[in-house]
Design goal:
The mean pLDDT is about 95. With about 130 residues, this protein is of the alpha+beta class. The longest helix is centred in the first third of the chain and has 7 residues. The chain has one domain: OB fold (Dihydrolipoamide Acetyltransferase, E2P) (Beta Barrel).
């Protein structure tokens, strides 16, 4: 199971990659494996400022629809447009081309409350 050391994680299986005041958010390899084939991703929160743990969108797989939650508070700047035509990128490359949104963090100190790779591994039993 691929769980990159340079990312932060939530118990809800989102990952966060910090780049200055901005951050990229996606779902973990574990999450995409549990969901199965992803067929649609919906994000209607572009331009909105959301609190930590607020839903920023939904991810739809063949068998289920799940909310995705903000790991930290921030403004949703951008949705990965490639996912509109190829949502399976989340299955194929969850930490790279399968990123879902880019945000501007409003409370960057919340990053310290997230799980590191080893804590996330323990959370999912690996």
């Amino acid at each position: 199971m691929n769980i990159p050391e340079n990312l932060k994680y939530t118990k809800d299986h989102e990952w966060l990659r910090v780049e200055g005041e901005e951050a990229f958010i996606g779902v973990t390899e574990f999450a995409q494996g549990e969901l199965g084939d992803i067929v649609f991703i919906e994000v209607e929160t572009i331009g909105e400022i959301l609190e930590k743990e607020e839903a920023f969108g939904t991810i739809e797989a063949v068998k289920t629809v799940s909310d995705m939650f903000m790991p930290v508070a921030g403004e949703v700047l951008e949705f990965n447009e490639e996912l509109e035509s190829t949502p399976e990128l989340v299955n194929q490359d969850p930490y790279g081309k399968g990123w879902i949104v880019k945000i501007k963090m409003t409370t960057p100190e919340q990053v310290n409350e997230l799980l590191d790779a080893s804590a996330y591994k323990a959370c999912i039993g690996h």
